[in-house]
Amino acid sequence: MRYEVWIGLRYTRPKKRDAGRNHFISFISLISVLGIALGVAALIVVLSVMNGFQKELRTRILGVASHIQVVARDGDLADWTSVAKQAAQHPRVLAVAPYIAAQGMLAIDQQVRGVLVRGVLPAAEDQVADFEPHMKQGRLHALRPGEFGIILGAELAHALQAGVGDKITLIAPQGLVTPAAILPRLKQFTVVGLFEVGMYEYDSGLALIHLADAQKLYRMDERVSGVRLKLDDLFAAPAVARELADRLDPALGVADWTKSHANFFRAVQIEKNMMFLILLLIVAVAAFNIVSTLVMAVTDKQADIAILRTLGASPASVMALFVVHGALIGGIGLLAGVGGGIALALNVDVVVPFLESLLGIHFLAKDVYYISELPSDLRWADVWLVAAVSFLLTLVATLYPSWRASRVNPAEALRYE
Predict the structure, then answer these.
(1) Structure confidence by residue, pLDDT tens digits, 283-319
(2) How many CB atoms lie within 10 A of CB 114?
(3) What is the CA radius of gyration of the chain?
(4) Could you tell me whether strands 167-177 and 206-210 are parallel, antiparallel, or unpaired per DSSP bridges?
(5) Taking CA 244 as the corner, what is the angle to CA 97 and CA 60, rounded to the nearest 5 degrees?
(6) 345: confidence class by pLDDT, cuts 50, 70, 90
(7) pLDDT digits (tens, 9 = 90+) for 201-231
(8) Measured distance CA(210)–CA(208) in Å, rounded
(9) What are the beta bridge partners of residue 227?
(10) In Å, what is the CA distance from 355 to each residue of 170, 263, 359, 361?
(11) What percent of the chain has pLDDT above 70?
(12) Under 8 Å between Cβ of 13 and 23
């Protein structure tokens, strides 16, 4: 072991001589260690939670939406079967399903709610979306043509006070023109199921009916709103969408999930980046507390520095031993922060419910946030990034005091010894 490392390690332990002064320096060092540990742990936990939000948001949106949608630019899609066949020929397309998207209003007793109505073919829809695993009551295949069944989101059913088996009226905004007035089209449906995907936007505002029933209600004959595609890799959606746009009729529009829901994912990514920068300031403040610790240590060890210089130590060696001293302080805090951050990030699902029960509050209300539970997705790339940046800040903080130590004049330092 080089003597610079050995002396730097020795300086981290207070001596019995001049205990009060050394213990004060050790106390400042402890504060620096705790500050770095808290900052690093907070960074890891926050980044993990933001990753969890990205993952949950993507999973829940794509569980109801689709990887790619093909629609007609000038209106409804008439020859959707040929479009579906052409799209299905792409090697990355796993499943294809037609759909009708329309606005409507549901009424039962005195309760009325506006909804997005989606007409689907249950067998095909089951291949491109994940409704079946999220069915609380009933099944997606309970939708049969001509029976006018409807499946509601759980929050929507709660707001309407409707349950499975209840009769509910669906009002289409496109009315019937008569000599007297424009009358809205009404049709009574039977609730045959409830779903809950865990995303309030869909659970409170989406209703599913059979494609044939939607065509009758909205007078679309054999036309549909578009075709939904599922891919073998959701991250390949932009490339596949561009390829399909070149293959299909130019009158068709092709949109992938990154465009359809770009605002959600862009907002989460921006928040993640800003939280990283903000919390990094905590680590920076704690790291630069090492400056004051080392400045006091240099002042306290001037006689030692002078003796080392008279024994032949170079200024670079003196600088190196104080860099080792500061790096050790930062390294201890860094290891403690990384360990604590990883442990907390892996147990967010236990810690957060405990805090909620202890404080009697709910951090993420269902009617306010898209995701009502705090998710966590620990990524080792983020852990390494946080550790590397934090350690770099620690090393930068040691440079000035170490340089000052290397500039100590031995004669001046030993004058009053």
Answers:
(1) 777 777 777 777 776 666 666 667 666 766 777 777 7
(2) 11
(3) 32
(4) unpaired
(5) 50
(6) confident
(7) 888 889 999 999 998 888 888 889 889 998 8
(8) 7
(9) 70, 98
(10) 43, 31, 6, 8
(11) 81
(12) no
Q: For the whole model, what pTM was predicted?
A: 0.65
Tokens of 77: 């899609």
Which amino acid, one-letter code, is at 113? R
> What's residue 207's pLDDT?
92
Structure tokens at 211: 């494609």
Task: Compute the distance between CA of residue 3 and CA of residue 321 in angstroms, rounded to an integer.
Answer: 8
19-64 and 262-300 helices, crossing angle to 10°: 170
In total, the chain counts a number of residues equal to 417
pLDDT score of 191? 93
Q: Are 69 and 255 in contact (CB under 8 A)?
A: yes
- Computed from CA positions of residues 52, 57, 60, 65, in that sequence, does the dihedral angle turn out positive or negative? negative
**109-123, 159-173, 228-242, 259-273: least confidently modelled range:** 259-273
SS3 sequence, the chain? CCHHHHHHHHCCCCCCCCHHHHHHHHHHHHHHHHHHHHHHHHHHHHHHHHHHHHHHHHHHHHHHCCCEEEEECCECECCHHHHHHHHHCCCCEEEEEEEEEEEEEEEECCEEEEEEEEEECHHHHHHHCCCHHHEEECCHHHCCCCCCEEEEEHHHHHHHCCCCCCEEEEEEEEEEECCCCEEEEEEEEEEEEEECCCCHHHHCCEEEEEHHHHHHHCCCCCCECEEEEEECCHHHHHHHHHHHHHHCCCCEEEEEHHHHCHHHHHHHHHHHHHHHHHHHHHHHHHHHHHHHHHHHHHHHCHHHHHHHHHCCCCHHHHHHHHHHHHHHHHHHHHHHHHHHHHHHHHCHHHHHHHHHHHHCCCCCCCCCCCCCCCCCCCCHHHHHHHHHHHHHHHHHHHHHHHHHHHCCCHHHHHCCC
Which tokens hold the place of 270? 């921006």
Q: Which two tokens stand for residue 145?
A: 């043509």
Q: Supply 26's token pair.
A: 């050790």
Read off the pLDDT band of 50 (50, 70, 90).
confident
Instruction: Tell me the two tokens of residue 28.
Output: 């400042």
Alpha-carbon distance of 261 to 256, in angstroms, equals: 9
Distance, CA of 133 to CA of 165 (rounded, Å):
21
